[in-house]
Batch of 4 targets.
Target 1
Amino acid sequence: MENEPHSLDQKALARVLGFSEHNVGYAPRRVPNLMKPFCIRKERIFAILNELRDALYVVRLKGGDPLVFGRGGEEMDFLQQQGIQVKVIPGITASSGIAAELRVPLTHRGHSKKGGTYPLFVAENAADPATTLVVYMGLSTLPSLALKLMHHGLPSDTPAVAVERGTTPQQRMVFAELKDLADKITLVELVSPTLIIIGKVVALSPFWPHPVEEASTLAEVK
């Protein structure tokens, strides 16, 4: 069995498993790169899950949003086809988790407003300065997205941030005004998965590198 976890997440998992009444352990070391992020092909994951089918319980931990760009649906389909029962326990979505890690409030009094009363509000008002945009997997489309947003009226100096592998030890982040964000991302060579947040609320982060004209604090609800 794997006796030496290689990350903080695995150490936390070890403590959680210690509370279990069942015999538990990590996947054997003979499974290559099992705990190395972003490196296992879908077919290999299926093979690993199938090898462990005789266990009482198998916990498949996935970072970020497992059912958004995470192949979670494909893995569930595979397991169900093998007659294996599956239960998904949702965690914290990447947009909320990364924003909280950076202390960026996705909504903030005086900086953003409610999402409207109909589903197309966000799409039709994407260039609204009072809207916070969270973009998944947007590295390749950011240059054109930024141009379109600015063309439709979003100020070019709107605060923005791109976060690679957010909330992990490998996290890297780039803060910039919207007009400069794509170039700065290219300069530091961020890679996927990268989440992008665009909106005035980004300037509320203590990591925002530019001076803010009007000091803002989190509003106290009375």
Target 2
Amino acid sequence: KRRYPRSGKQYHRMVSSITNQEAIERFIRKVTDARNKLETQYPTQFCHPRRSRTSPWDHYHIAKEARKMHDLFVWLAEHAGDPAVENFVVRLKDHLLARLRDLPYEGDENEFSDNDRDCVLISDNKLYEHATLR
């Protein structure tokens, strides 16, 4: 009776519509049961932290958690020969210096001296990959 309002009122359409509704409900129940079973077997893999709310007026938001870490020099060695990583450390430090000094972004045209670049320290030569950038 509860499926009747969502079906066609003509008899031949009503029967097939109710049958489809029952099949969909069985499928959803089967998926839900399987998920609940997996959650009880492997509880840590299904623990999803809630996303923090961000203001719609923020220009961007970067997640505070960084689960994936890369050693800078190992990462550079893995990508050797890639034109995107030529002078990567120099360009990265130039980019960071420009952001830290509030210089307007115009395509990273700013060049800094080696003494300036030496002021930017990359702690333990680690780069962290963030999963969220909104």
Target 3
Amino acid sequence: MKSLSQFTLILFLSLPFMSFFPTSQADFAFVRHHVHIINNLPGDLILHCQSKDNDLGPRTLHPGQEQMIRFRVNIWMTTRFCCLAQAEWKYKYFYAFKVKRDKFHCGKQCYWSIRDDGIYYSSDGTGWVRYYTWE
């Protein structure tokens, strides 16, 4: 009985915080997101992605291969994944996911295509727009 009353008290005290975010933001924060990064280069791509909490380490993607990042947005809505893409003499640091940008652009699925002339973005994997150029 004591644990039930403690649970009820915790639930009651957390209600004001649950209404802090509008429903759409709360939905965005607590669903699982997927970022797809596809190597559309003729050669290998070295990709190293990380957030503040997760370093995924460097990965080699052969032509046509994809790296998928799965995660949930933190409660403060500040989750970001930064990636370094390296291919031959080209490289680029880019944000594969940033809440302020992507809550309006891609929802639960974001797509990136790494190509010879730059890094392309799509919200559905079909309509590609160049978002970054190589350095």
Target 4
Amino acid sequence: MLKSCLAAFAVLAWTCDAYSFVSRSSSRSIYTAAPQSTSALSMKLYDWKRRTADETSLNDVDTYVFTLDNLKSAPGSRKRKTRKGRGIAAGQGASCGFGMRGQKSRSGRPTRPGFEGGQTPLYRRLPKFVGKPTGPGHSKKMFSLVTTDHLAKAAPGSTVNYESLEQGKIITKSKYNTYKIVVGKDESAAIASGLTVQAHAFTQTARAAIEAAGGKCELLSRTTGQVLQEAA
């Protein structure tokens, strides 16, 4: 009886020693810690392999040699895209963050840009100013075109602008109050020599054709119509 009790006590002592409590401080010394980076960056790294990586050499710009095979993107600049509609475990499953019902949960774009549910939108509530339109293409410069074919019919050595061409019945109508000189359909047509052409804009080929014929180009202001650039 005594021998069996001693044997049981010995087995109990051996099992207690095998599964004895080990403090976290003592177990921490058993394993070697991963090298920590000395980078000053405090942003969140989505790449788990680079969170504990030692990138000390990358931060040493003076001695580190960058080549095509060791280039890396900046930490935190590349984030894995969110996979939607792949189950609730992914975080954006089922309705993909658009809710269960309603107009904004339907496929396609539910409303047009600027729509505010029927109330007066912002672009209509703001006051309108002259010369500051808000429609599409409001920054585009619109010109009425005057071709070099019209300049070929002008008198040599004269000052040519839209008013003079209209008085000579070379041009009969215009849609805009600003005019641009462009090359006409007949590029071989000879421009009258010695012309001083006044317009709000010139194309490079039209300017070259006028100057090749001994003429001059004067640029006009779009608002006042005065000469901005005198012909040399």
